[in-house]
Design a protein that fits this description.
Elements: E1 5-10, H1 14-26, E2 31-36, H2 42-49, E3 53-56, H3 66-73, E4 79-84, E5 98-101, H4 106-129, H5 134-144, H6 149-156, H7 160-174, H8 179-188, H9 194-201
Parallel strand pairs: 1-2, 1-3, 3-4, 4-5
């Protein structure tokens, strides 16, 4: 993890909130913590703190309403972990992204969080790679066919500066920084045919 993980704890017991907060500080992960008590407005608190992860007592948070909290708080990517203090039916926890028990040791809690963060990073990478706009795809095709920035600008009725900006965004999204790498990407994703590239270079 490169950045701090923003974690909010939603629990009515001050002792449990403080105990979990202290444990998370000792766990060796870069976390920023926010406490949300039962009397607080959960939606408002989520809007203010914008956590990556919400650790919540299932008694306070109905699992069927998780999508509601995500939408209403403006945190659609929020991961929610159930903080379980008693024996719960497994079916009632299936909407949560993970579980932590009051009886878990430090390593088990750390692994639960790490797994969640790794999954989130994988999802973000996949989203980024799938998010080329139609214009960016057009530019990839032009680059692969060997066109200069000026030629691409003329073909697509853009300024050279705009073409350069698009190319930077493409490199950032795909993490590809060479024409040969873009060529492979374009062929694999069926943006161009191999024959198109040969014709363009002749």
């Amino acid at each position: 993890m490169n950045a701090n993980l923003r974690i909010a704890i939603y629990e009515s017991s001050l002792i449990i909130r403080n105990g979990l907060s202290n444990l998370l500080k000792k766990i060796g992960m870069p976390v920023i913590l926010s406490d949300i008590s039962e009397g607080d407005s959960l939606c408002e608190s989520l809007r203010i703190h914008r956590p990556d992860v919400l650790i919540a007592n299932p008694l306070l948070l109905q699992s069927h309403a998780l999508h509601h909290w995500r939408e209403e708080s403006g945190c659609p990517e929020l991961k929610v972990i159930a903080l379980v203090s008693m024996l719960w039916p497994e079916a009632s926890l299936h909407n949560y992204d993970g579980q932590i028990s009051l009886y878990d040791d430090m390593e088990a809690i750390k692994q639960t969080l790490l797994k969640l963060v790794e999954n989130k990073e994988d999802e973000n990478t996949d989203d980024e790679q799938q998010s080329l706009s139609a214009r960016e795809k057009e530019i990839v095709v032009c680059v692969v066919k060997g066109m200069t920035n000026r030629e691409i600008a003329d073909r697509l009725y853009l300024s050279t500066h705009t073409v350069i900006t698009h190319r930077r965004n493409i490199a950032r999204k795909l993490q590809i920084h060479s024409v040969s790498g873009l060529t492979i990407y374009a062929i694999v994703n069926k943006l161009v045919e191999l024959s198109d590239i040969h014709q363009a270079k002749e």
